[in-house]
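Homework help board

Subject: predicted structure for assignment chain

Our instructor gave us this sequence and asked us to write out the predicted structure in token form, then describe one feature. I got the tokens but I'm not sure how to describe them. Can anyone check?
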Amino acid sequence: MRYICFLFATGFGVGYSPLAPGTAGSLLTLLIFYFLYPLPLWVIILTLLFLFFLGIYSAGIVEKEKGKDPSIVVIDEMVGMGISLISIPPDRILFPVAFILFRFFDIMKPPPINSSQKLPGAWGIMMDDVVAGAYTLIITHLVKIIFFP
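My token output:
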């Protein structure tokens, strides 16, 4: 069971990337969403909810062994990036915009992202990326509406 938790929490090993594992997890999510986009919205939302709760569980297991918010855990970035891409078509402009915005919010952690990270255990690991994803989702949709009506 430990192995399976590590597998999910690390994004099937992407979290072991020696350079910027969170960025690698976000890039993996871009690739996955490129192929998921044709699915109905409810399927994507249910998948993200499932991954969120799987992340709470698996990141909690990894955190107990590796310490607070270990860098190998990228399921949080994957969920946050996935939220960023809800109803965003796989576009050569919108996908990079969402990626850059999400990484910016995830790294800079403006309020309330910074305070959501202080939640206990895996909730803190997951929630800062969920909020960063929500910020990104709103701004990316505004870009889509303004520049790609």
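Reply (TA_rk): Your tokens look well-formed. For the description, you could write something like this. The chain has one domain: 2-147. That's the kind of observation they're looking for.
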